[in-house]
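To: structure desk
From: M.T.
Subject: fold request, one chain
Message: Could you run this one when you get a chance? Sequence is below, nothing fancy, just the single chain.
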Amino acid sequence: MMEDLLLFAAVGFAAQIVDGAIGMAYGLTATSVLLSVGVGPAMASASVHAAEVFTTGASGFAHWRLGNVRMRMMLRLAVPGMIGGAVGAWLLSDLPGRYVRPAVSVYLMVLGGLILWRAMQVRREHQPPRSVTLLGLSGGFLDAVGGGGWGPLVASTLIGRGDQPRYAIGSTNAAEFFVTACISGAFFATIGLELWPVILGLVLGGVLAAPFAALITRRLPDRPLMIIVAMVILLLALRDFVIDLRWLLG
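Reply: Done. Structure tokens follow.
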């Protein structure tokens, strides 16, 4: 019991350091660990999102305190994200998510390449936020279905279109709290929650890591941050694409 708690606390800490600093990978990392030890997709997603209610709350608060959040952008992501997340959680038991994720992985690889290309260009004036309603809706839906993916889809799209990485990551993290809370509520109402030791470990590690991750985002210059984001997106998307393609063909 204690060994499992410490193990998942370590997983939660490492995942939150990455997620809070570059706006992605907590859900994907934690869900991958749960799936590797035999937990079903729906229960793995439900457990990770239950833990993320606390970790995203701590991360969003830390980003807000450090001035990394644009409130208008956050709200325009959060509201449609909650709707998409609730629908995705409700459909997860019937929807063949494995057939959707390869297409998402290709999209993310393209975005990762675009961000890397932008990072190598001459610095330009940052563009003001544009409509993000559809982005929030699709991000929430895919996050629920895939057990993660809000950050890679939302933060990478915002950065890829030219938004300043610091605000894109901070606003995405703050909005994720509301999306995750909605998804968790939907899962609790449909399949319940059982893996409380796992959830507790992920919460403890993630909450401890949140302030440090937000500080990294504030301190790291835009260009290195964009390069890190691009490389993480490319590696995660390529990994998921290979795994899902093998599953489809096998």
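Reply (cont.): The chain has a mean pLDDT of 79. Let me know if you need anything else for the meeting.
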